[in-house]
Amino acid sequence: MDLYVCEIVSNKRLAGAVFGVTVVCADIAAAARPGQFVSIKCGAERILRRPVSICSARDTKLEFVFEVKGEGTRWLSERVPGEKLDLLGPLGKGFDLPGGGVILVGGGIGAPPMLFAAAAAKGPVTAILGFRSAGNVILGDEFRGLCENVIITTDDGSCGMRGTVAAPLEELLKNGSFEAVAACGPRPMLSAVAALSGRYDVKCFVSLEERMGCGTGACVVCVCETRSAGGETSMSRVCRDGPVFNARDVAWE
């Protein structure tokens, strides 16, 4: 984990308020693992950095995808090629996927880090991507270039299957043979993915999303409740102990 000042090579709108930024940063690109994130300084006047998951790391380039939700991410969306970004990373613990077949589940802005996981997977990959509507779908072609099978769901049925990721996930788990499920997205989705994986006795890893202050574990803003094998509960830091956890260790209630 180090600080880097990196040059922007592209900034493109992917859908609605979702943008993808690519920077040149050979050191982070070489060290990054799927599920990790970078913490970005969004303007001199903002003290707190913005945590953003890594979407891809190839050669000397690093890509991250984010949704504009406030002034910091709005500032970030307005950057242009040639400008510099102050990055801290790579941060957190990523996915440690087995070598067999895996199912990757991404919900909304949780889809981009799963693309990095698809690129690094050692075995065959099936991706299930859930979005609100056709206008919110991102990275479909990129996933198709890396996965044996890509299933898209939308809440309104305007693209792919109508409904949530739960139905196709259960169908795959019921009829297929998979080593693990990995997921990133809204907490209700992750809870459902964890429950289905447990029902079919398949290992499940989830990337949790929490508001972060420092991104390094010092401020303890991003804690979540976890449970040990013996049933004892404790508070874990998502930025340092995660963001990726074994789903069985998360207290979902």
Task: Summarize the structure in short.
This protein has helices at 26-31, 71-77, 111-120, 140-144, 166-175, 187-199, and strands spanning 2-15, 18-24, 37-41, 50-58, 61-67, 84-91, 102-107, 125-131, 149-154, 161-162, 180-184, 203-207, 223-227, 233-237, 244-246. By secondary structure, the chain is an alpha/beta fold. A seven-stranded mixed β-sheet has the order 10-9-8-7-11-12-15, sandwiched between helices. It has a six-stranded antiparallel β-barrel with strand order 1-2-5-4-3-6. Strands 13-14 form a two-stranded antiparallel sheet.
Structure description:
The chain is of the alpha/beta class. It has 2 domains: 2-91, Beta Barrel (Elongation Factor Tu (Ef-tu), domain 3); 102-207, Rossmann fold, CATH 3.40.50. 20% of the residues lie in helices and 37% in strands. The chain has 6 helices and 15 strands. It has helices spanning 26-31, 71-77, 111-120, 140-144, 166-175, 187-199, and strands at residues 2-15, 18-24, 37-41, 50-58, 61-67, 84-91, 102-107, 125-131, 149-154, 161-162, 180-184, 203-207, 223-227, 233-237, 244-246. Strands 10-9-8-7-11-12-15 form a 7-stranded mixed beta sheet, sandwiched between helices. It has a 6-stranded antiparallel barrel with strand order 1-2-5-4-3-6. Helix 5 (166-175) runs parallel beside helix 6. It is globular, with a radius of gyration of 17 Å. It starts with a strand and ends in a 7-residue tail after the last strand. The mean pLDDT is 94.
